[in-house]
Amino acid sequence: MDWRQWFYHIMNMFNVLIVAYFFLANGIYTFLMILSLVSVWLHNRRLTYQGLDELRESVVTPPATIIMPAWNEQEIIVQSVSSILKTDYPNLEVVVVDDGSTDETLVRLVNAFRLVEMDLIYRPRLPTRPVRGFYMNPRIPNLLVISKDNGGKPDALNVGINTCRTPYFCTLDSDCLLERDALLRLMQPIIRSPQNTVASGGIVRILNGCEVKDGQVVKVGLPPGRVERFQVVEYLRSFLFGRTGWNLLGGTLIVSGAFAVFHRETVIDAGGFKHDTVTEDMDLIVQIHHWAIHKRRKIKMNFTSDPVCWTECPASLANLSKQRRRWQMGLFQTLWKYSEMLFNRKYGVIGMLSYPFQLYIEGFGAAVEFLGYFMVPMALMLGIVPPTLFVLFVVLGLAYGSFLSVGAVLLEELTYRRYPSFRDLSTLLGYAVIENIGYRQVVLYYRFQGLVRFLTGFRSWEKVVHVGATE
Amino acid sequence: MPFLIEHITEVVLSIVVIVLLGTGALVAMALGRRQRRERYFERLDDLRQRFGPIVAALLSRKIEYERGLEALKGITGIDRLYFLEQLLLEKTPTVAQVPVARQLSEDLGLVKVWQSHLSGKFDIASLHDALARPEGILQRVGRLNFILKAKSAENLGVIRHQPSWPLLAKALTDPHPDVQSVAARALAAIGETESFPALLARLHDILIHPSSTLSLRSIKSALVSFPLKEAPRLMLSLQHEHPRVRFMAVDIIREMVEREAALNEDFVLDASIFGPELGEVLLTHCCFDDNGDVRARAAPIISYLSDVRATPVLLTLLDDPQWFVRLHAVRALAKRKFMSQSEQISQRLTDSHWLVREAAAQTLLVFGRTGVGQLATHLLNTQDRYSREQIADEMQRTGLIPTLLTQYATSTDKRETQVLGQLADLGKTSYMLATLISSSDRTLRKKFLTDFGSHPDPKISAWVRKIATLEPDTEIRSLAIKMIGKSMDETEA
Asked: How far is residue A223's CA from residue A230's CA, in Å, rounded to a whole number?
């Protein structure tokens, strides 16, 4: 075989790979969508008798701590902390960990809450960078601010875990606003489940475009920017049918660290948040699964779609690129670290389904799809693929993407209907249809960059700048 | 037949058409759904507007019951019962409103429907009905009936419908965990004495067969809600051979007791509330149980008993080999009536487990000045660094430092000076200095500078240096300069 034949052979192989990826990925997504439609609809119906009042007043509702790591968040930190202090939960403690900010994050907290520095005892069950000081106001005994040397978000979270005194803790990003009863709703599956539920994740929705008053979202609206609007659709797809579907199959591998509850002792036993990946939340979940199998512990992880946390999404492509590169790089780092789980029957659904899905569809799939945008046209030019088929395949790709995105918007409409105006719904449907023309390819490019960075050993965390919600 | 490229094209084309049609269908469904929901909310809003004030007036007994009832009977339509339920139970009725809400639910035929649903009897809706009524699908599809069952149980609990308790007790063994869980909650809300054994039996079942679909917390929460007078029914559970049953029984009693105690500061458990046998079992069995958890959870209950043996038993538990038993015992003693035991409690300030040390410090603080004095004495006399650190920790967390400094400024007693000195030696000076910086008390600053201005603590030294350069009060500034000189002399020496 000469080089031309080799080239043609490779091109053919790649085209087969692309087609296989397309049908496999979309088949799985469609399956997840159908599962989620049923599951979320049912869950929504079950909310009518969830008994939140009873949960709030019950003595058996376990106390919980919200741990909020913050690094250079001077613009939003006071608003965020004020908001979480109003969380409707019995026996709530709040620990804010200032991860060596170089701006006024700590000063603003001290001034806003009249905190005083105290020399408290620090018992590091998880190793961390040194703690500089503790700040408290004896009149707000449930708020503790800790200042520490910069060590990254996982390190800040570990400091929070070391000082946490309650059996459960909730991680919350400093750019997030919690709905008042979100923590209660998030704890509900833990309290009501007969199984040992060690992690519970809620839905993260986009704050941009919403009206905020006293640290609470009072009117939900769509953001003005196109990049943000596309992300609204993306988040709905990711949370409402991606995570719900996997949760139903018992294969939760990702719980958003922006808003999730964990069982403290389980996390400590599993080794806490690690510094060797840039997506510490996914890393912890995989690590807990790994730990549970090795220690023969029966655990459960849960995703619930009604506890809502509002987060500020990147409004510019520059910030979006940082976020998506990090997510993709973190995905590979985590999967690489726990590669023994791949197709390992010991790990059940996680090893046989979730892990391969994350690796081949979410991970390598991005590379295959990205390269496909170059290889398939090349195959067309070389006459390997007939033009009609090429056009049809492109149309199919775009149409299927729209189908899934519209499905996510429908799911939202069937259940929570957070976007009240008819205009918002129509706009969302419109964005769901056109998301695959342009936006998807841009995100794909960032994800491909993430893979390249993983392969080249790039490790640093790219900070996404938050401007804070306007009251 | 060979598979030609034309065939592939045809297949792909078909898929494209199907996907496009599917997308269109989803868009139409979303828009249709929105329109339908808007119609639903329009109807609900209309009913709220027309009948909401009547329901509110009925619940607050502002209008004649019969008149209000007749008005509500005016709601018609296929979805009448659903909307009546919405109007009546939209907001959970208060305790005072419950009797009217219950009567209305009975007279409007809602209770009958809920009871019928809970016992598994459903009118199988026709497909047309199922689509027209808000809850039609749930009736039509057998596997979804559990939602209506659970909702019915919830409603019967909300209106505290006492005659429905046997149905709810039966629902505790329903195949669906949602129904079990809501039934337990409803039984707790109704509080019918006769239902307590059914809940208890379910608790035993969960503890002995951990594969149960009902969570332990749900059933425990229900049992805890019952009045304390039901506690003697847990007697057999307290003596059960299974340690988890004993533990859960004692923990349920503890929760019941602490709930009552929270309402009454001088709460005491005497035989009239508790029965003599239960107190006896707690004092003679539970606090000597093989299981540490049982001993630990018995301590808080014992602390409320009006029995002369209670205090000695608690003091015995203070020396238990298990740290968590000691922890619960120390916490149980955090009542002013145990002030005379402060000496024994302060011994736990040197406990090997930090949580016990912390609890001991917190317990002593409950005793007010006496406790603070005990803590100060311990701080000054102990050689145990961990114990000193723990006391310093609690003093800061509870905001005692400003009070200590105020007392230090005005008192001639050396004790406050010694305590501050001890805190400075431990390096616990941040709060002290923050208080001094924000204080305008000249005497306090002068006294502190004189006594501690040359202390080697780096934070104090930095503060003194700052005073020496920035303080506008010349007397204090020169005092600070003098203390810097003294500090240097001491360092050289």
From this structure: 10
Residue among A125, A141, A67 at smallest CA distance from B362 = A141
> By the 8 A CB rule, do B289 and B328 touch?
no
**CA A441 and chain centroid, separation:** 21
Q: Cα dihedral sign for B219, A54, A89, A210?
A: positive
* Cβ-based contacts of B34 with chain A (< 8 Å): 413, 417, 422, 425
Q: Which amino acid is at A329?
A: M
The identity of residue B202, as a single letter, is R
Q: What is the Cα B340 distance to its own chain's centre?
A: 31
Q: Do B154 and A51 touch (CB under 8 A)?
A: yes
Option in B38, B215, B258 nearest A192 (CB): B215
- The rounded distance, in Å, linking the Cα atoms of B486 and B480 is 10
Which H helix or E strand runs over B10? Answer: helix B5-59
pLDDT digits 0-9 by tens, B133-188: 777 777 777 788 899 999 999 999 999 999 999 999 999 999 999 999 999 999 99
Position A398, amino acid: L
User: Three-state secondary structure along chain A?
Assistant: CCHHHHHHHHHHHHHHHHHHHHHHHHHHHHHHHHHHHHHHHHHHHHHHHCCHHHHHHCCCCCCEEEEEEECCCCCCHHHHHHHHHCCCCCCEEEEEEECCCCCCHHHHHHHHHCCEEECCCCCCCCCCCCEEEEEEECCEEEEEEEEECCCCHHHHHHHHHHHCCCCEEEEECCCEEECCCHHHHHHHHHHHCCCCEEEEEEEEEECCCCEEECCEEEECCCCCCHHHHHHHHHHHHHHHHHHHHHHHHCCCCCCCCCEEEEEHHHHHHHCCCCCCCCCHHHHHHHHHHHHHHHCCCCCEEEEEEEEEEEECCCCCHHHHHHHHHHHHHHHHHHHHHCHHHCCCHHHHHHHHHHHHHHHHHHHHHHHHHHHHHHHHHHHHHCCCCCHHHHHHHHHHHHHHHHHHHHHHHHHHHHCCCCCCCHHHHHHHHHHHHHCCCCHHHHHHHHHHHHHHHHHCCCCCCCCCCCCCCCC
Which residues in chain B touch residue A416, judged by CB atoms under 8 angstroms apart? none
Residue B197 reports pLDDT greater than 80 = yes
Choose among B234, B223, B229, B297: nearest CA to B269.
Answer: B229
Question: What confidence tens digit (pLDDT) does each residue in A30-65 have?
Answer: 999 999 988 888 998 999 898 888 888 888 899 999
Structure tokens at B447: 């006294």
Report the distance separating Cα B130 and Cα A217, nearest Å: 36
Top pLDDT among B411 and A174 is at A174
Per residue in A389-421, pLDDT (tens digit) is 888 888 998 999 999 999 999 999 988 888 888
Look up tokens 């005793």; give the residue: B367
Please state whether beta strands A197-206 and A216-219 pair in parallel, antiparallel, or not at all (unpaired): unpaired
Q: Do A42 and B218 touch (CB under 8 A)?
A: no
Shortest distance between the Cα of B192 and any Cα of chain A, in A, equals: 18
Give, in degrees to the nearest 5, the angle at Cα A166 between B300 and A184.
105
Contacts of B22 in chain A (CB under 8 A): 403
Q: Establish whether this prediction's ipTM goes over 0.90.
A: no
User: Given pLDDT bands bounded at 50, 70 and 90, which one contains residue B5?
Assistant: low
Is residue A83 within 8 Å of residue A216, measured between CB atoms?
yes
Q: Which amino acid is at B368?
A: G
User: How far from A413 is each of A42, A227, A335, CA to CA, in Å?
Assistant: 14, 22, 34
In tens, the pLDDT along B439-485 reads: 888 889 999 999 999 899 999 999 999 999 988 888 889 999 998 88
Q: What part of B 238-277 touches A (C-beta under 8 Å)?
A: 255, 258-259
CB B26 to CB A410 under 8 A? Answer: yes
User: B273 pLDDT exceeds 90?
Assistant: no
